[in-house]
Amino acid sequence: MNKVKVITDGCCSLTPERLKELDIELLSMDITVNGETRSSLNYPITDPEEFYKILEESESCSTSCINNYTFEETFEKYLKLGFDVFYIGLSGGMSCTNNNAKIVAEELNKKYGKRVWIADSLTGSYAISFSVEAAKQMADEGKSAEEIHKALDKNGIKSFAIFAPGDLKFLRKSGRINKFAASVGTMLKIVPVITANEKGELKLHIKSIGRKKAISTIENYILENADLTSPGKMYIGHTGQKEEAEQLAKFLKENTKNKEITVDYIDYTMGCNCGPKTIAVFGFLK
């Protein structure tokens, strides 16, 4: 049985150091801010706090899917080295990237046999990282790419992501909500609390009036739905809300057992879509 190479994309929010430690291949997505396009991995602003301050003042922001050529080049490189390939990245309900990977996998599997497996995380950011780390562990244990796919496809590990954006205009720019909803929400100081549906598409969990109410809604969601007792990780991701994130971490530590709570910035690609001053929690469901 061939060894398995685990591959993900720039929306997993794992640091370059952690990816290197795990020996995970990461495919970058391009981000465009004020008309200037750069790879999210080689963006010249390396300080996330500075990046999100600039993003807050930007007139435009967009992201690009990973194209078929990049997938083909990367997947085939490892196939020729004798690896089977397992890829998992941003939800297919949020990006065409997953579908592009499936198209390439279908063609390569005709040429090399069934050796490329594409899973849909149905989620984003640190919730992807849970599956990436699980895939690497399974690969190190000698599991096949097919076995890993069977365990992790369509959020097989039952992770969750819930977040509150700082400004609705970024969700509008990324096409997640329409212009009218964004303008009305901003005027009324509505802060939507957002999760994902069974297809991995963003869905409104509840509309909150004001930031404090939104954070309280996230806390209640966690208390009602999250696995708070089993050992494991929970992430609090943010795009410039460090103090707020630390307060939420304090709440989680007071209400969980055996959990490793990590507070860190959301990656630039996901951050361009949800916008600055976003706060999110990632964990596992009961």
Structure description:
- With 286 residues, this protein is an alpha/beta fold.
- It folds into two domains: 4-29 and 65-152, Rossmann fold (3-Layer(aba) Sandwich); 159-284, Hypothetical Protein Tm841, Chain: A,domain 3 (2-Layer Sandwich).
- Helices cover 42% and strands 25% of the residues.
- It has helices at 16-22, 48-56, 68-80, 97-112, 126-140, 145-152, 168-173, 179-187, 211-225, 242-255, 268-274; strands at 4-9, 25-27, 30-33, 36-39, 61-63, 84-89, 116-120, 159-164, 190-196, 202-209, 232-238, 259-265, 279-284.
- Strand 3 and strand 4 form a beta hairpin.
- The relative contact order is 0.16.
- Total number of distinct structural domains: 2
Give the CA-CA distance, first to last residue: 34 Å
Mean model confidence by pLDDT:
90
Number of DSSP helices?
A: 11
Secondary-structure-based class equals: alpha/beta
Q: Rough shape? A: globular
Q: Provide the helix percentage.
A: 40-55%
What are the secondary-structure elements, in order, as H or E?
EHEEEHEHEHEHHEHHEEHEHEHE
In the CATH scheme, the class of the largest domain would be Alpha Beta
Which stretches are low in confidence, meaning pLDDT under 50 for 5 or more residues running? 176-187
Number of strands: 13
Tell me what the CATH architecture of the largest domain is.
2-Layer Sandwich
